[in-house]
Amino acid sequence: MEHTEHSIDPVQEQQEHIQRRTVLQAAIGVGVGLSVLSTLYVGVGFIPKVVVTPEKEPVKAGDILVWAQGAKAGQEITPADLQAALKSDPPFIIAYPKNPENNVVKNQLATNTIMVMQLEPSSLSPETAKYAAQGIVAYSAICKHLGCTISQWKNNVWHCPCHGGEYDPRQGAKVVAGPVPGPVPQLPIKLEGNRIVATAGFLFKPGADV
Ligand code: FES
Q1: Of 31, 67, 77, 175, which sits most exposed with the smallest number of CB within 10 A?
Q2: Are 116 and 134 in contact (CB under 8 A)?
Q3: What mean pLDDT do residues 94-104 have?
Q4: pTM higher than 0.85 for the full model?
Q5: What pLDDT, on the 0 to 100 scale, is given for residue 44?
Q6: Ligand 1 atom closest to Cα of 143?
Q7: Which CATH architecture has domain 54-198?
Q8: Residue 203 Cα, ligand 1 centroid: separation in angstroms?
Q9: H helix and E strand count, the chain
């Protein structure tokens, strides 16, 4: 009687094993990939959208400076207001920019808080004078140290009440005292009649350097 027996070729068996393993690994890989993709897709749904309303837009060329606080809040600041402020304490005005196209005061963005002051034109450094108008200078009021509002005038310079940071408005807000890492940015301005108008955004990024 003839005895038939299926002989198993070891090389062929090993190749088939490798093929099965490759297919299995590919399937697992696709599964993992899809899983990661679906996780990312779900995650994207939870990222909050940043909505920039007109009140939160950063100051830009054409904006008019208005009173930020007090009885005149929202009204346009005039050179006469700045002259009058020199007799008060502090001798400068805190302002916000107003968009003349929609009349929206951009008061919902902290870094739009601006100090405006009338100084003697001849006291300004050439670089500072380039962005001033008849001695009127405007700078970010947000301290570069930890972000307090610079609201005082001491030693003939701007003074931050939080830790005593001081800036000289005649020299590009050069730091003259305190733990401040650098100057606050100047806002280039011009006079249009009685209006103080920004001719660009801040010269560099406003806000605390933290
Ligand atoms: S936050 Fe102004 S000196 Fe510290």
Answers
A1: 31
A2: no
A3: 98
A4: no
A5: 52
A6: 2
A7: 3-layer Sandwich (2.102)
A8: 21
A9: 3, 11
| 146 CA → ligand 1 middle, Å | 5
Using CB atoms within 10 Å of the CB of residue 152, give its burial: 0 to 12 exposed, 13 to 18 middle, 19+ buried: middle
172, 128 Cβ separation under 8 angstroms: yes
**Using a 6 Å cutoff on CB, does residue 208 contact ligand 1?**
no
- For 177, the enclosing helix (H) or strand (E) is strand 174-177
Residue 163 token pair: 């830790």
State both tokens at 24.
Answer: 């299995």
Domain ranges of the chain: 11-49, 54-198
Least confident span in 13-22, 77-86, 92-101? 13-22
> 120 CB contacts (<8 Å, ≥6 apart)?
135
Whether the Cβ atoms of residue 197 and residue 66 lie closer than 8 Å to each other: no
Answer for the pair 75, 209: CB distance below 8 angstroms, yes or no. no
